Amino acid sequence: MTEFTKEEVGYMSEALRLAKQGCFTTHPNPRVGCVIVSDGDIVGKGWHQSYGGPHAEIHALHDAGKKAKKATAYITLEPCSHHGKTGPCDEALIEAGVSRIVYATEDPFEKNDKSMPDKLNDAGISVSVGLLRDEAKQLNRGFFSRVINKKPFVTLKLGVSIDGATAMESGESQWITGEAARKDVQKLRASSGAILTGSGTIKIDNPSLTVRDEMLKAIDPIRVIIDTKLQTAPDAKIYQDDKTTWIFCVDDENKTLFQNKNTKVFKVEKNGNYVNLRSVLEILAKKGINDLLVEAGSHLCGALIREELVNEFVIYQAPLIMGSNTRKMFHTPGYNKLNESLRINIKESKKLGEDIKMIAEPIYRAEA
Amino acid sequence: MTEFTKEEVGYMSEALRLAKQGCFTTHPNPRVGCVIVSDGDIVGKGWHQSYGGPHAEIHALHDAGKKAKKATAYITLEPCSHHGKTGPCDEALIEAGVSRIVYATEDPFEKNDKSMPDKLNDAGISVSVGLLRDEAKQLNRGFFSRVINKKPFVTLKLGVSIDGATAMESGESQWITGEAARKDVQKLRASSGAILTGSGTIKIDNPSLTVRDEMLKAIDPIRVIIDTKLQTAPDAKIYQDDKTTWIFCVDDENKTLFQNKNTKVFKVEKNGNYVNLRSVLEILAKKGINDLLVEAGSHLCGALIREELVNEFVIYQAPLIMGSNTRKMFHTPGYNKLNESLRINIKESKKLGEDIKMIAEPIYRAEA
Fold it and tell me: A161 vs B162: CB contact, 8 Å cut-off?
């Protein structure tokens, strides 16, 4: 394994910081950052800013100009070597005359030319891989999941009381969590390619599921609705605006009721009497969804954990005891004994306004 | 208000640290610490070690010996001036020749002679009050609650899953939380004068509710059981050992079934069909209980919050999703709308082993 210096860790950290600026705007492309370093000075910086636009390397080389000659390029992802919407970055790096390339992690994207390192070596450029690899993979976990696992990275978000209630029995749930948590949810939405919910949430809450924070310039996430028998009201808010909504059902008899050109109905296979959720995720991956945010009720959330499809939980716990006349977080008919329930690993728990924000990952049986 | 120097804050902090060493052994007496300072040096230290034993000041004066002359005594509580199980401390301080006394907070104990500061002034001793008062009151919040509010400080402890379940529907609840949380509960018990539970918990879990950690030399907390119709099994574990158990009921017909000399049955007034919990707390205060720890099921916990009798929550959240076939934390028939539920203030939330330990205080309607 290549050893890297403290300075190099610093350069790659800066490249990662730059890459993060593309969090809301690059998908389905990955988030990528690049810094060009000459004689210990950062002479060029760039990041992939928007889907279809120039890659990070091109921005950074442009920023460095002639100083790129004999410099080292630190890139958070293996430079592309294929002709897509933009030209291949490896050739641009060769042309600019860099003498060394350090990238954090390999690009799993299948179209990439696996002979790329050879091409660079032939041009006299030395190549090192693996600096801050974990951090770089984490940044693009949705992209990696889509390309490698053929499904999006699934984040399940819940706003609950300390005693685990998501709503009163009546359905009343606004506003359990505070301002800071709601702002944070806007960021979660903005960094997701799609938001998944169920027909129950459409019926009860009639949400828009859009990015409302105007400070966040984001690609509008696609709203994905699981509506097994296509029974949500066609005049629900989510079917009225100019943003894309996809409905997944097993029975599309009512399909013609959904007239908005932005609303598309997908008929998928059954799993019992329900939409096969794994199939939905596979379709979403094929359509370029890297990160899927789930904002749903207990039935859909329960089904997703029982089918082991959730990758991460983001739980906002409000300082509230809602008591017993309430709805629980997860409907889980299969959990009858403690050892049948789902273990999680709490990765982070911190105060956010008056609430607690907790990030956790499931430990599914196969791994446990 | 008296201004205190940074050095003085340091002396009182040390006195508070000493006082905490009595957390498991002084009740119903308060926890008190004392340092004697001469020419900037701490020349004597003491703390109240056990109920009925010498007070903090006596230990500290003994430790200082002749160096107490013209020294300053920093004490976490107003020195006593009455003849109880031990002689009055103000006279001991006068006799030792200290020139100044700084104490953190007044002693609310009614037997205290309110002319004490005059007595000290007459002896040429200057007296200052209020250094780290809040911290000193916090340390003895149970003692203050008992003396001033005529009820113990009530801490409600719960071990729950992230989704707010305390047990599976079957009652299965061992072990939701981890080793570190269970050890922490032993400390909570050891610092409590009594532990409160309900008949349901005795029937389902058959607990001992003792301090099992042999490292904690503690006064055995009294087990207090709410058993409205006196229907728990007389052969339950809690009635078999040599530690004290008090049962509160409204119907004591079965009283003679409880033969263990350590078990005492109290008949109290009704509140609806249930034991009047406020009366129970008043009786416990009269009997010298400063700190009451509640370890109970959803009905008793729910009744305590609805009657606004809980002062603090200690909630251990385990990294577990237990799902929908589970028991909730609080049975609250009166909470039907969000604004009828109980707001809390999360004072602390931190990882403890694999669990999260959260400390919160209720914000009752009158205060909200």
Answer: no
Q: Tell me, yes or no, whether B238 and B349 share the same domain.
A: yes
Which whole number is the average pLDDT over A226-238?
96
Mutation choice for B interface testing from A161, A305, A321 by most B CBs within 10 A? A321
The 10s digit of each residue's pLDDT in B330-345 is: 999 989 999 999 999 9
Identify the pLDDT of residue A237. Answer: 96
**Percentages (nearest 5) of helix, strand, coil residues in chain B:** 30, 25, 45
For residue A324, list chain B residues with Cβ-Cβ distance below 8 A: 298, 302, 328, 330-333, 335
Residue B72's φ and ψ, nearest 5 degrees, are -110, 135
Question: B368 vs chain A: nearest CA distance in angstroms?
Answer: 13
Q: B146 in a domain, yes or no?
A: no
Radius of gyration from C-alpha coordinates of chain B? 23
B233 and B346 within one domain = yes
Q: What is the pLDDT of residues B11-47, one digit of tens each?
A: 999 999 999 999 999 999 999 999 999 999 999 999 9
Pair (A95, A160) in one structural domain: no
Residue A145 is assigned to a structural domain of this protein: no
What ipTM score was computed for the predicted complex, to two decimals?
0.91
**A358 vs B: CB within 8 A:** yes
Residue with tokens 């009283």: B255
How many Cβ atoms from other residues are within 10 Å of residue B32's Cβ?
33
Catalytic, A172? Answer no
Q: Give A273's pLDDT tier (boundaries 50, 70, 90).
A: confident
- Same domain? B341 vs B196: yes
> Cα separation of A56 and A140, whole Å?
14
Report residue A368's pLDDT band, with 50, 70 and 90 as the boundaries: very low
- b/e sequence A260-270, b meaning 16+ C-beta within 10 Å: eebbebbebee
Are B106 and B168 in the same domain? Answer: no
Cβ–Cβ gap B343/A320 under 8 Å = yes
- Nearest Cα neighbor of B186 from B217, B164, B162 is B217
Do A125 and A213 have their domain in common? Answer: no
Where among A108, A138, A168 does a domain terminate?
A138
Residue numbers of the domain that contains A226: 151-363
Residue B182 lies in a domain: yes
Q: Cis omega (within 30 of 0) on the bond before A28?
A: yes
Q: With contacts defined as CB-CB under 8 Å, which chain B residues touch A329?
A: 163-164, 321
Task: Give the CATH number of the domain where residue B90 resides.
Answer: 3.40.140.10
Whether residue A116 is found in the same domain as residue A212: no
Number of domains in chain A: 2
The three-state secondary structure class of A258 is: coil
Q: What is the DSSP string of B313-361?
A: EEEEEESEE--SSEEES---TT--SGGGSEEEEEEEEEEETTEEEEEEE
Residue ending a domain, among B74, B103, B138, is: B138
Give the CATH number, domain containing residue B195: 3.40.430.10
Asked if A173 and B338 come within 8 Å (Cβ–Cβ), the reply is yes
Same domain, B171 and B101: no
Six-digit token pair at B36? 């004697």
What is the reported pTM? 0.93
Contact B338 A168 (CB under 8 A): yes
Examine residue B1 and state whether it is found in any structural domain, yes or no.
Answer: no
